[in-house]
Amino acid sequence: MDAKGVIDKILSDANAQAEDIKKQAKVKTDAEKQKLDAQINKHEKQTTVLVEKAAEEKKSHILAAARMEIAKEYLAEKRKILDDIFEQAQKKLQNLPEDEYKKICTKLMVQAVESGDEEVVVDVNEKCIDHEFIKLINRELGPGFKGNLRLYDQKEDIGAGFILKRGRIKNNVSMNVLLEQLRKQLEIELANELFAN
Fold this sequence. Notes:
This protein is an alpha+beta fold. It has helices at 3-53, 56-94, 98-112, 131-141, 175-196, and strands at 119-121, 150-151, 161-166, 169-174. It has a 4-stranded mixed beta sheet. The relative contact order is 0.11.
């Protein structure tokens, strides 16, 4: 299977997982919504008594606070689901077979290279990205680049993936950073969904 196939498979698996999680989230969301609707009803009944004694502004304040608390609980539940997804994704990446990991790293490195003379920083426990791997990447970069990538002599604690370093410029392509970027995108989507309702 080529690198594109591996990436496509991972994306396909991730999409399937995302669909399952969406379904789970909908079931949980519906249950939470019913629970929260009951809480809103309870808050509204309590508020009716207060309205007779208090000004309209007081009523609005109480309802707003109740809705905000409900929104917080709803968001907290969605964050728990996101945490589970990313924990599973990280475990899956850590347990990839060596050939799949190399294919992913090859694709990511070829895409990330800008000049072809960067130094490649790897994790202290990295075993796949070595001098031979870098030679293969240099060959794959072809004539458009200098083809002079080399391993940086100091390893860092970055987990899976790598960092391309050229002078003071660093391009972090570690799996943790890639997962964190994806997580931020999903959190923005969640926030938009929450506040749109």
